[in-house]
Structure formats: C-alpha cells, structure tokens
Amino acid sequence: MVRHSQSASELWKSQQWKKLRQNLFRLQKRLYKAVRAGDLKKARSLQKLILKSRAAQLLAVRQVTQLNKGKKTAGIDGKSSLNYQERMELVETLSDYASDWKHSRLREIPIPKKNGKVRMLKIPTIADRAWQCLVKFALEPAHEATFSADSYGFRTGRSAQDVQKRLFNHLKASKNGSNMVKRIIELDIKKCFDRIAHSSIMDRLLAPACLKQGIFRCLKAGINPEFPEQGTPQGGVVSPLLANIALNGIEDIHTSLRYADDMVFILKPKDDAEKILQKVKEFLAERGMEISEEKTKLTKATDGFNFLGWKFRVRKDGKFSCTPSEDNHRAIRQKIKAVVNNSNYGAEVKTKKLAPIVRGWRNYHSSCDMSSARDTLWFMNKTAHRKFRKEKKVDRYKATELCKKAFPKVGYKQNQHVNVLGTKSPYDGDLVYWSNRNSRLYSDATSDALKRQNHSCGYCGLRFMEDESVHLHHVDGNHDNWSKKNLLAVHQSCHQQLHWSTPCMREYLGAG
After folding, report:
1. DSSP of 59-105
2. Which long-range contacts (CB under 8 A, 24 or more apart) does 222-225 make?
3. Which of 10, 85, 119, 174 is 20 to 30 A off residue 339, Cα-Cα?
4. How far apart are CA 129 and CA 136, in angstroms?
C-alpha cells in the first residue's frame, strides 16, 4: 500500500504513460488478431494477461479519474474524486481482485426525456468504473474483431458522421437511378438498455470464466426488481459495449445502419417492410427486447426522416439533402440561451462558455448543408451581442469582438466526411491510417498543428488514436497568442502532464 500522499503524488506523476499505452496496445492488437484468426483459446489467455497487466490497471484508473467526462460524478459511496494516494491504492486493489471483482450498488439519477418520461441513469462507484474500464480493455478488441461493418455507435474509430455519409451513398441520385423512390424504416427499440436479457449478453461474451463472472455481477448490480433477468445499467463504462454485443447481427437482416440502439433500414420498392420487421421482432425477442410500435415508422426518402440529430431527405430532383433537425436546433438554442441569459457571470465568461458549445455543434454538422440563415445561428449571435452591450464597460466594438469568439466559425461542406473502411478497427495495428483519419475530425488551428506534427502528439510522440481527444497547448502559456509556433497538438492526458506544476491549469483541466 502507498503510505504517504507526497510519495504517491510523485509516483503517479512519474509513470511512463507513453510506455504503458504502448504495452497495453501491443496486447490488444494481439488479442484482436487472435479472434480474427479464430484462436479463442489464445484470445482468452491474452484477456487474462490484460486483466493482470500493470499498464492496463494504471491506465484504467487514470481514464476514470482524469480523462472521462463524467469523472466527477459520485457513485453510491459519495466519492467524486480520488487523490494520488487513493489512485495508487485503487491500482493495487485492481491488481489483487480484478479476477474476482464484487460490484457495489449503483447510484440512481433520474434524467428527463423529451416525451416527459424519466430515464434512470445508474452510476457505479469510481472503483467499479475503474474495473469496468479494465474489463473493457480486455473485451473490446475481441469483439471489435466480430462486429458488423454497419454498426457505428459507441465503437472506437467510428462516429455518427460515418452513418451520415453511408446514408448519402445509399440515397444519392446516382445510386440505382434518381427515379427509384426508396423507403426508410426508422426503428425504435423499446427501453433497449433496460430490457436486454442477461443471458443474451453472457452467451455471446468472448471472455474467460473469471471475466464473465465479473460481468454477470456487474449486470446484477443494476437490475430492476421488476425485470431481474434483464437490463444493462446506463452510466457504466462497459454498458454500451455490452449492448453492442447483444445487438450485433441485427444488421444482417436487411440493408441497414445502426448507431447503438438507433437504427434505419433502407428499402427498395420491391422490399417487403412487414417481412423485414417480423425478422427484426424475432431477433429482438431472443434477446428480451421488442419494437416500439408507436415510434417505429416507414417513411419515403423523399418525405424526409430524422436520424442522429439530422434531417435527411431526397429531393424531387433526386439530390440528397442533410441539415440539422428541428429538435437538434431547439437543443442548441436552449443551451446558448441558458448561458447568455445567466446573470451570475459577465460577458467575458459567457464568451468562454459559449465558444466550445457552438464550435462542438458546428463541428458535428460540418458535413451538412449549413447555408440557411437558421443554421448560421445569426439570430442567437445578434441576441448575445445585444445582451453583452447591456453590461458595463462593453461597447459596440468589444461586444462584436466577444461575439466573434463566442460563435467561432467552422467550415462546412455537405458529404465531405470520409468513411471508415469496411470492418477496419484501430486494433488492427494500422497506426498511419487511424492517426491520419483521426486528424480529419479536427479543424482550423488544431488541424494545422496536426499536419505540421505528422499526426503525432507534440509531447509524447505517439500517433493520435480515437480513444483520446486532441488538445491545443500554448507553449508560452499565453492563451491569446495563436501564432503557429506557439501551438502544439497534444493528447488530453499529455496536456495535463504539461501543466502539473500550475495549480490554476490543473483546476482548468479538471485533473484533480
């Protein structure tokens, strides 16, 4: 056990994270190739090695305590963060009990849904999240080797934009002629995460017995007493992966695209929608799930349909159109209004809070047609300008400058996204392909820095992969200095290491 917080702090900071990541990735790559080759005995041995790996244990604790967005959310034990000593002690706990882990109960947080109902988020403790992350390190490469090419949600190396581009390829005018009116089945699975049968997950899990036992305990920790044999708790690190494992194969029923539990089937005029839906119902019934009849719709592509925050439509001239959906627009307007109308802070702080919200929204839609006045957020910009002017010491010129920072421009071009190739996975070892592809997800100054650095981290030298976001580091510490020489693209974790000695930067980065 680690006795002194000072020595624990030094021990944690002195870890060779670059070397640890390389060691873990080497094992994961071997695991992926073993499953692809059909050698399940070797695969299970490698999974046991990952569970016992010091590199994997340290990285799992770092992931849930430093890098994950929900790292400050407390579980049933009330702990929302760990100090250095507690982190090192958790690593030791994983080392001793990873193969025989016993889950604590889950903290339930009600989340309101659009239809007025409530979804229950179930949050594990930090220790349980660390174990789940360690387990994910061992499970994900094995199942990535078996997942369908038409599955995109909660998968490393894939994104919603891949679905967007695939829909363009399926529906564009040159595909089988512009006069062929295709139909879309918008599939909705009723309470998917709450109804997945535990047996359907356990039967399909590629894992040694000790890991399966841990997953079974994990599932039982979050059960609804009304449905004791069903459900994977939403809020767990490993839950999305387990849902993908259970649903894998539904894509083979008919031409379709799936993002987690959201799915569309693409029908030609001769296809029988009823037969397809019947096969889907049988597939889901085997897994304890069923279709939501009121939300599942059959739509003509020319009438348009909503999917993943976009409105897709094939116009009468056969041209494909993709724009942000009404619901998506309503959500971004509400987020902007909440910041602009907040009287607890001034225009400068509002600007800093608005910029990442607006940039993130525009980046998400950068492969859309964003030419309409609504999509430029012109009215929201105008409202923010007026509100900023009402504050002391903010004249027209300063308000204009603040709005430029609060509403950063992001270039767009419909269907510019480049799809991931077939069933490729980051675990296949093709680092050049994946780092180049990951770099295309960024724009402006970050994109320029990535190109200058040959798509590698400016601090550790490793290529950028999908598992960690890219940060821009200002070399001289001046965040107003945006000259190219002052900007370095680094991993999120490397950015934290660069600023360990600066208390205010540690707080800004949420490193703890």
Report:
1. HHHHIIIIISTTTT---TT------HHHHHHHHHHHHHHGGG--PPP
2. 222/106, 222/122, 224/194
3. 119
4. 10
